[in-house]
């Protein structure tokens, strides 16, 4: 028996979704598919399903720091993935944690809305993430509605939002899945002025947990040593396949199939 794991450990700080479509379960499944191990730290408990979010409760900072410390003092963590934080206090908590571990690459998914549109934090949480967390991130992965909140541009284009946000972060991936065009345009912006556009066919329907899937996959690809532009492309392609194969497990949005049916066979 091999007792020495070669899988990178990714510290995931996010909320728990009881439907299993988004949040930490999405992180775990997506990272398993990349050959990584997810170490899930619960930041918030939510009451939600595939239709929408009903309520949430952010955990005390001491509990979150204790969870993270238990992992960091035991395992060699290769990267950090941030999801739902939900409060200004939790933003401060995560900033403290990241400043104590500046060597870790971090993917920030600024979760401010559930897939069904319900709020998972006030807009000022997004502004705090912009000011305090994005400067600590390797890359941020907002969808266009989230980018507009972060940039304070309610009708801004991806280019306009990127111009406002790039002073805060090194790399920015703005996804375009919330539009209605035939093709989805996902745009990667970097502070050095380079830009890349990744285009894919728009799938019918709406999906619960696509952003979590993308950000976690990207953290995993970076952890195993893939270069950023290539890692973004790999993560986007993988996420598109999970949506293509998604299942309707409830009465609302489709849930991405992040693991093959024969994964455990």
UniProtKB/TrEMBL annotation:
The keyword Protein transport does not apply. Pathway: Cofactor biosynthesis; thiamine diphosphate biosynthesis. It comes from the Bacteria. Its EC number is 2.7.1.49. SUPFAM superfamilies: Ribokinase-like (SSF53613). GO terms for biological process: thiamine biosynthetic process; thiamine diphosphate biosynthetic process. PANTHER family: HYDROXYMETHYLPYRIMIDINE_PHOSPHOMETHYLPYRIMIDINE KINASE THI20-RELATED, PHOSPHOMETHYLPYRIMIDINE KINASE. Residues 17-253 form the Pyridoxamine kinase/Phosphomethylpyrimidine kinase domain. One of its GO terms (molecular function) is hydroxymethylpyrimidine kinase activity. The keyword Transferase applies. Pfam families: Phos_pyr_kin. One of its GO terms (cellular component) is cytosol. Keywords: Kinase, Transferase. InterPro entries: HMP/HMP-P_kinase_dom, PM/HMP-P_kinase-1, Ribokinase-like. This is hydroxymethylpyrimidine kinase. Gene3D superfamilies: 3.40.1190.20. It comes from Pseudomonas helleri.
